[in-house]
Design a protein that fits this description.
With 179 residues, the protein is an all-alpha fold. 83% of the residues lie in helices and 0% in strands. It is built from seven helices and no strands. 35% of the residues are buried.
Length: 179
Amino acid sequence: MSSREFVVGATTGFVVAVAAYLLVPTALACLTLAAAAIATVIAWTTEYAADVPLVVGVALFALGLIGALLSLVDVLRPVPLALAVSAATALFGAQQPLGSNAWVTYALTAGLAVACFAAYLGVHSTVLLVAGVVATTIVVPEVVWDLTDGAVGGGVLLLVAGAVLLATSLVSTWLRRHR
């Protein structure tokens, strides 16, 4: 299959998934729509992008944010599922530009964490807290590893990840109780 056939197939699948979701807005239709949207974004960006990992990553990150916004305004339902899929898509996209574009990875992942925590203050969805904790737990050890040029050992890095996970979990628990 050529890349143009992939673009046409993915786009057609996306259009069909949108129609199916509009007719029967179920959890399965929401998941199908998300999968079709991801395939379409990957098809279009790999067809026309020069720096594929960076462009695909940023496009998937944007897709995740758009999905989250649509779920927060009650267009995509069920909202917790749509938020979870959107956050996972954004996180997956944020992690794509690794390599020479590591700073983009860190900025997108940290931005996702901040956005999730900020959105939680208005929406109070546990999914947002979980996504914020996961993004923070991923980005901090990555930054520590790069800032030390890998000088920290695996044990220290695991300790940093555990401390970040514990701290963000405590903050998220505090937020849930004092909202």
